[in-house]
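[Discussion] Sanity-checking designs against the backbone

I'm trying to build intuition for which residues belong where. Below is a structure token string of 512 positions. I'd appreciate it if someone posts a full sequence so I can compare it with mine line by line.
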């Protein structure tokens, strides 16, 4: 193209040169002038186009791209970078901001916790402290640490200690390295000192069971928010716990664990549901092994009794032996704490409930003196690991299997009795008011026989009989309800004999 424009320009100049002399002739002046002007215009255009297409001295000469590839310039490398990054996974860590553990100041801030000079609170490593809100006090003065209670979603930030912390009356604060805890309702992966957040103790992931009872139980410190913390160094590293299998939801594993407990105490297993396995052949009104319980979804032991407010000696011994096997608490300590829990529940202001914690174990009890007395306890480990127990010896396993068969037979009998009672209750041959009178009057007569010092309730029984439409001759030797009354009274006498005289007298007083 450059050659073409050069020829055009050159020929135009030649035509212009030939046209110039003809302009001087009178006859051809007009035509020659027009030709000269057009030639000059065409020549100027050709020269201009030739100049635009001429190669520059700074321009690289073209080469064969396959044989001699052009070295990329920095700009070329930058343009190709996005396509390379899109084909590779992102880096695991931010090279600009590496993750690091932080430091927290942890303090005992509860005036209700009274420590002796020699007492020390040991917070183990893996103590979790939950974010509660922004500090409204001064960060340098722990006594002013208070947080705004936010209304709305649960706080989603927590820190976990990497080392144990010792707090004393003379030194209620200490610093310790921490990481961000990632777990249930805790998702934040970083926290800065400038955020001014207050953390309170919430859990202990790995609780080493202390050899003796601490001055303050870890559970009480958590329940009362006695321990608070604030960051003194930013934290951006995280801590996660491995997923641990629990007994809840696995009926086979739950039954296997229940059989170990039953074999240890000389009992057997009975009916199973998704969450419990009944224990039978033991000195208790009812006993069960719980497969999952509480936030940690750990196993538990439930035991109930009746006929007295406090657990009978045989039931108490069973609680101690079974609990020692399940949670690792010594038998003597378990019995002592169960008795203390029952006594606390019987106090007038206790509403028949109480609880005790000791070295990570917990006892919850419901005890009452009314209606002859009774109660129940639930035992589990709130903190610390459950002991690993091996399978029972062959002879113990064989005895437990035999006991389990007896338990199953009794459960069948009990269900049959329940069905028979339901059918009897629905039988229209005897009015329900008469059936209720026979049960209530038989109970009072049996209690009066068990408690000779009590006053008689003849007037009350007569009023009940009148209300139910029962005449004296109806329950006489040849009365229409004689057989009903005799059978009910016999059953009530048998059950009442299992109660102590004191319990019978207490049960009878409510009818005075």
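Best answer:
Here's mine. Compare freely.
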């Amino acid at each position: 193209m450059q050659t073409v424009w050069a020829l055009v320009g050159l020929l135009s100049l030649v035509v212009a040169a030939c046209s110039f002399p003809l302009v001087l002739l009178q006859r051809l002046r007009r035509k020659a002038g027009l030709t000269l002007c057009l030639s000059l215009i065409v020549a100027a255009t050709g020269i201009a186009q030739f100049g635009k297409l001429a190669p520059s001295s700074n321009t690289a000469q073209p080469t064969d791209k396959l044989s001699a590839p052009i070295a990329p310039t920095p700009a070329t490398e930058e343009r190709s970078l996005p396509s390379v990054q899109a084909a590779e996974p992102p880096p695991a860590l931010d090279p600009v901001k590496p993750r690091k553990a932080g430091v927290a100041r942890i303090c005992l801030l509860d005036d209700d916790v009274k420590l002796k000079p020699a007492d020390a609170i040991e917070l183990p490593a893996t103590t979790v402290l939950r974010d509660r809100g922004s500090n409204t006090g001064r960060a340098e003065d722990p006594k002013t640490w208070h947080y705004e209670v936010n209304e709305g979603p649960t706080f989603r930030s927590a820190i976990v200690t990497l080392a144990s912390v010792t707090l004393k009356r003379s030194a209620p604060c200490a610093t310790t390295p921490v990481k961000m805890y990632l777990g249930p309702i805790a998702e934040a992966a970083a926290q800065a000192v400038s955020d001014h957040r207050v953390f309170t103790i919430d859990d202990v992931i790995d609780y080493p069971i202390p050899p003796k009872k601490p001055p303050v139980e870890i559970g009480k410190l958590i329940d009362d928010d006695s321990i608070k913390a604030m960051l003194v160094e930013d934290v951006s590293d995280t801590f996660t716990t491995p997923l641990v299998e629990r007994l809840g939801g696995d009926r086979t594993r739950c039954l296997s664990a229940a059989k170990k407990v039953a074999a240890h105490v000389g009992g057997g297993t009975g009916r199973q549901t998704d969450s419990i396995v009944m224990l039978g052949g033991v000195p208790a009104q009812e006993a069960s092994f719980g497969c999952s319980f509480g936030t940690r979804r750990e196993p538990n032991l439930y035991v109930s009794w009746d006929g007295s407010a406090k657990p009978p000696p045989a039931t108490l011994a069973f609680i101690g032996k079974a609990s020692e096997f399940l949670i690792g608490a010594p038998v003597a300590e378990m019995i002592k704490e169960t008795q203390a829990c029952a006594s606390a529940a019987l106090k007038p202001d206790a509403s028949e409930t109480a609880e005790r914690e000791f070295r990570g174990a917990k006892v919850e009890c419901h005890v009452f003196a009314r209606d002859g007395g009774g109660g129940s306890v639930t035992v589990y480990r709130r903190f610390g690991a459950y002991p690993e127990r091996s399978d029972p010896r062959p002879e113990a396993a064989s005895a437990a299997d035999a006991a389990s068969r007896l338990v199953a037979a009794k459960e069948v009998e009990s269900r049959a009795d329940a069905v028979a009672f339901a059918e009897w209750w629905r039988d229209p041959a005897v009015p329900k008011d008469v059936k209720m009178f026979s049960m209530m009057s038989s109970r009072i007569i049996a209690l009066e026989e068990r408690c000779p010092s009590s006053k008689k309730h003849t007037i009350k029984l007569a009023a009940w009989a009148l209300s139910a439409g029962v005449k004296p001759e109806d329950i006489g030797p040849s009365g229409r309800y004689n057989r009903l009354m005799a059978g009910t009274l016999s059953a009530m006498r048998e059950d009442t004999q299992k109660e102590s005289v004191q319990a019978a007298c207490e049960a009878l007083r409510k009818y005075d």
